[in-house]
Amino acid sequence: MKNKIKKLLTIMAAGVMLLISVVPASAQEMQNFPTQSKSGYYASYVRGIQTMLVNYSTSTRKYIINAGGVDGSYGNGTCNGVKAFQGAVGLDIDGACGKNTWTKFRSTLRSTGTTNSYKNFTGNAPYFSEGYNMRQVNAYNGAWQCYWYGWKSVG
């Protein structure tokens, strides 16, 4: 009986470790989000990047809109939009969204207050469309959502 329990616990632990390695962690702040690029990305994070690009400037917006909108795919439109954003904010231009790019994206947002468990943000950028473009779902666990024809999870 002890061996069966031990074996079951080992299998359960292995399953949890596998899940942790496959599912991206919800980061409290954007600079802790994983790097996203054409060679490796999670659609949920890319939707956040695309939403930020749509709301940053007319230049970054056109790359996303011309590529079909916020779709979670890190294709040429997203890569070029990230490059345009990186150039505009003085970062090295590589087309990947790593820690420095996430940090600059976060700096383009300003808080508009808290409603229930939501921290709401609007763009603090040269160009911004109406409404919220990002929100932190819960101030305690730091999950983010972006808005593009409805709220979607980031991360």
The proportion of strand residues reads 15-25%
Query: What is the CATH level 1 assignment?
Result: Mainly Alpha
Largest pleated sheet: 5 strands, antiparallel
Overall 3D form: globular
Instruction: Please report the distance between the alpha carbons of the first and last residues.
Output: 41 Å
Write structural notes for this entry:
With about 160 residues, the protein is an alpha+beta fold. It has a 5-stranded antiparallel β-sheet with strand order 1-2-3-4-5. The chain has a single domain, classed as Muramoyl-pentapeptide Carboxypeptidase, domain 1. It contains 5 helices and 5 strands, in the order H-H-H-H-H-E-E-E-E-E. It has helices at about 1-20, 45-55, 60-65, 75-90, 100-105, and strands at about 110-115, 120-125, 135, 145, 150-155. Helix 2 (about 45-55) crosses helix 3 and helix 3 (about 60-65) packs antiparallel against helix 4 (about 75-90). Mean pLDDT is about 75; it is low at about 10-25.
